[in-house]
Design a protein that fits this description.
- The chain is of the alpha/beta class.
- It has a single domain, classed as Aldolase class I (TIM Barrel, Alpha-Beta Barrel), CATH 3.20.20.
- The longest helix is centred in the middle third of the chain and has 21 residues.
Length: 340
């Protein structure tokens, strides 16, 4: 394990004012999103959409890295060069999603574990040859009656640690994503309680597997009420509960925290990120690793029509710029033309 290289890559990913685009949707997920805007999910359409994102003018000012799916890291662009090179030519670091999605946890109704450890060492070697410098593995925790169970939380924490150890062995920075989902009607305090336990056990397992904390990045959820809850919380309350929890369970050795957006809409995610960044005294660099909160407005503008590419790219760069300001605590609604 080349610790110095991992640390340098992690610092590069967490460059001030820059964040990550999670363009790593599985074929099933991207198919659902394309169908929602009336676009057939063919390989050419998926290529066209992602190529539009990667070639947006000036996006490198706001993005340090992009997380790719297996199809994309192997795919050629319409220009004849590999898609990954569209990013590296802009100085954007290529990452790769390596988990193979979630499956039901036997004997634990309503809970899921993430799969994909089999053959991962060999896949890491191939992805590094393809130019990947970091990786991502996502686990999910549901909140509900009797959920989560200790078995589910522990099982997912163990897979996160084994994945992270294998990533570092291969020279890739692991992004560890233990997402506590917004599904449900729980309140914000219940989310904080569950997130605390899930993240605490993840770090316990990471240390058990001798993962270098200095050479990894955490990708957590924000502490929020469930999407079916009637509870209203301000961005400042979200920030206080999120940062105070991170201080309880995340070692200061971790160089960076890149928040996921989950089910939040684009503007709300930016407002909450901005409030989090304004909380003083965090020992880590903070940023975003958004998927839908960056891409949702872009897809709505594009809708598979080549005539809409310039406008969709403008919106994409605008959203990235707003989130870049937010990680500095300098976002304000008047910046966001999409707020209306």
């Amino acid at each position: 394990m080349e610790t110095d290289v991992l640390m340098a890559t992690a610092r590069e990913i967490m460059a001030p004012g820059k964040g990550l685009l999670a363009a790593d949707e599985s074929t099933g997920t991207i198919t659902k999103r394309l169908r929602a805007i009336g676009v057939e999910s063919t390989e050419d359409n998926r290529r066209s959409y992602r190529e539009m994102l990667f070639t947006a003018p000036g996006i490198e000012e706001y993005l340090s890295g992009v997380i790719l799916f297996d199809e994309t890291i192997r795919q050629d662009s319409s220009y004849g060069k590999p898609m990954r090179e569209l990013l590296t030519e802009k100085g954007i670091i290529v990452g790769i999603k390596v988990d193979k999605g979630t499956q039901a946890l036997p004997n634990f109704p309503g809970e899921k574990v993430t799969e994909g450890l089999d053959g991962l060492r060999e896949r890491f070697a191939e992805y590094r040859e393809l130019g990947a410098r970091f990786a991502k593995w996502r686990t999910v925790t549901y909140i509900g009656d009797g959920r989560p169970t200790w078995t589910c939380v522990e099982s997912n924490a163990e897979t996160q640690a084994r994945y992270a150890a294998l990533a570092q062995e291969a020279g890739l920075v692991p992004i560890v994503e233990p997402e506590v989902l917004m599904d449900g009607d729980h309140d914000v305090d219940r989310c904080r309680e569950v997130s605390r336990e899930a993240w605490r056990i993840v770090f316990e397992r990471l240390m058990n597997h001798r993962v270098s904390l200095e050479g990894m990045i955490l990708k957590p959820n924000m502490v929020l009420p469930g999407q079916d809850s009637s509870q209203e919380v301000s961005p400042e309350e979200v920030a206080e509960k999120t940062v105070s929890l991170l201080r309880e369970v995340v070692p200061a050795a971790v160089p960076g925290i890149a928040f996921l957006s989950g089910g939040q809409d684009a503007v709300a995610a930016t407002e909450r990120l901005n409030a989090i960044a304004r909380v003083e005294g965090s020992p880590w660099r903070l940023t975003f690793s958004f998927s839908r909160a960056l891409q949702g407005p872009v897809m709505d503008a594009w809708r598979g029509n080549a005539d809409n590419i310039a406008e969709a790219q403008r919106i994409f760069v605008e959203r990235a710029q707003c989130n870049s300001a937010a990680v500095r605590g300098q976002y304000y609604p008047a910046m966001d033309k999409m707020a209306a």
